[in-house]
Amino acid sequence: MTVQSSLPLAESDEQPLIGTRSYDAYRRARDVFPDGTTRVTIERDPIPRYVSHGRGAYLFDADGRKFLDLNANFTTLIHGHAFAPVVTALERQLRDGTCFANPTEKEIELAALICGRVPGMERIRFCNSGTEAVMFAIKAARAWTGRPAIAKVEGAYHGAYDWIEVSQASTPATWGSPDEPQSVPYYRGMPTSVLDEVVTLRFNDPQNAVRQIRRHAASLAAIVLDPMPSRAGLIAPDPAFITALQDVAREHKVLIISDEVLNFRQSFQGAAARYGLEPDLYALGKIIGGGLPIGAVAGRACVMEMFDADKKKPAVPQGGTFSANPMSMTAGLAAMQCLDHAAFAHLERLGDKLRARLEQAIERCQVAFSVTGAASLFRIHPKRRPPRDFREAFWSPSEAAVMKEMTRFFAAEWILLPDAAAACLSTAMGEAEIDIIGQVFEQFLSSQAQRLQWEPR
Ligand code: PMP
Questions:
Q1: How do residues 131-176 score in pLDDT, each as one tens digit?
Q2: List of residues 6+ apart from 81 with CB closer than 8 A
Q3: Mean pLDDT rounded to a whole number for the chain
Q4: Is residue 352 situated within a structural domain?
Q5: What is the CATH number of the domain that holds 137?
Q6: Ligand 1 atom closest to Cα of 132?
Q7: Ligand 1 pocket member 227 (CB < 6 A)
Q8: What average pLDDT does the segment 356-372 reach?
Q9: Is 12 part of any domain?
Q10: Ligand 1 contacts CB of residue 226 (under 6 A)
């Protein structure tokens, strides 16, 4: 069975990949948005695909065509689209009011659920996005240490706060020598003072990281680490890298912030627990909002005290008109309550099965491809061996062309595979979806291998 053959609404093979409704919408969008979109991350080939609605593992585009969705709003929808418990809970909350200048009991319930799962999360504060979560975690670390700078991993994406944007999009032309990774500006006009306050580390290079942290320790507030940074390759951290960062941070009283906005979905206790990292602070987002906007900073009670007013001005004031709004709290609570041990075991099983299936296809077709990821996340690389850091994962122009071909091939088979970022599974998926993804990948490898003249393995 293919996705296509199971689709009552799908049209013929000859149909262009993007339908006419999307073209009409995009024409209107270009009159109101710079570049025709309102998020830089929207994929386009050649224009964005406009969506009408989603159900479970599938979404329907504006032309009524059904796709298996491996993006799930950048890994947010761990139960898929329009998850019934979230919909039911939100319908009730909608009638009761969407936001107040007062707290609601819903926020305590969601906070208790999250903190109850992760021992390192002794206190938590909600905000509206992963960007804010990372920003507030950095501010709390600065207030706690009295130091301004941060260290971060080259190529890792952590949202849109200036300091953390540094070296997010380094290239071979800008990234500098392996021993001295450059702090590379992300946008034109980024203040040089920002660049001066960021130390760029290479993922999985413990010696270099330790050397750099020691050199800059006097000004460093925190090391911000996503344990498996998606855009930097979705590569597993070496235990030696984690231990080295942990030890050098303790030695110099630099805090560790685990950015789990994306990777909290890796287990019941998130990603740090999985890789033996003991952070002082965590940044959360995506899945904890059940599909509504959310962010959270959590961590050790003594550091979280930086947000504590205690009748005077807090060290770090943290607010936000929509922070902890009852809609996000309600959706998050419904989604997280359903994300129990059984749900994580299901996701783990599906992910392992899929990664093994993709690797078998690579082996059978003898092409220079590899797969990384863990739990419900995976990334396919046009590389003979799984990359170990951002530089190894970086695509040459010909590799980028191959990956574009692959994304198109998947779309033609009614599967939306994210470009250059983590793809994800959801609890709405089962063995049938895993088989389809595996089949389509193998078809792609065997149909294109000769034409693209890949290097044999
Ligand atoms: N950190 C990480 C690791 C992320 O993946 C993201 C979003 N993809 C962010 C932070 C920013 O989150 P948001 O888009 O909600 O601002």
A1: 999 999 999 999 999 999 999 999 999 999 999 999 999 999 999 9
A2: 53, 54, 55, 56, 57, 58, 59, 69, 72, 291, 428
A3: 94
A4: yes
A5: 3.40.640.10
A6: 16
A7: no
A8: 96
A9: no
A10: yes
How much distance in Å is there from the Cα of 130 to the middle of ligand 1?
A: 5
Tens digits of residue pLDDT in 92-136 = 999 999 999 999 999 999 999 999 999 999 999 999 999 999 999
Residue 282 has phi, psi (to 5 degrees) of: -125, 145
Residue where one domain finishes, among candidates 284, 312, 337: 337
Which numbered atom of ligand 1 lies nearest the CA of 263? 3
Domain identity same for 323 and 353: no
Number of H helices, E strands in the chain: 16, 14
Domain shared by 182 and 272, yes or no: yes
The answer to whether residues 289 and 262 touch, using CB atoms and an 8 Å cutoff, is no
Number of domains the chain contains: 2
Q: Is the CB of 261 under 6 A from ligand 1?
A: yes
pLDDT tens digits, 23-79: 999 999 999 999 999 999 999 999 999 999 999 999 999 999 999 999 999 999 999
Q: Which of 78, 131, 263, 297 to mutate to test the pocket of ligand 1 (most atoms within 8 A of CB)?
A: 131
Q: Which atom of ligand 1 is the closest one to the Cα of 295? A: 15
- Domain boundary among the residues 337, 358, 378 is at 337
Based on the fold, state whether residues 281 and 132 are members of the same structural domain: yes
Q: Is residue 30 part of a domain?
A: no
User: What integer pLDDT is reported at residue 6 of this predicted model?
Assistant: 38
For residue 303, what are the domain limits? 84-337
Task: Establish if 278 belongs to a structural domain.
Answer: yes
Interatomic CA distance for residues 57 and 54, integer angstroms: 8
Q: Residues 386-405: pLDDT tens digits? A: 999 999 999 999 999 999 99
Overall residue count recorded for the chain in this entry = 457
- 240 alpha carbon, distance to own chain's centre: 23
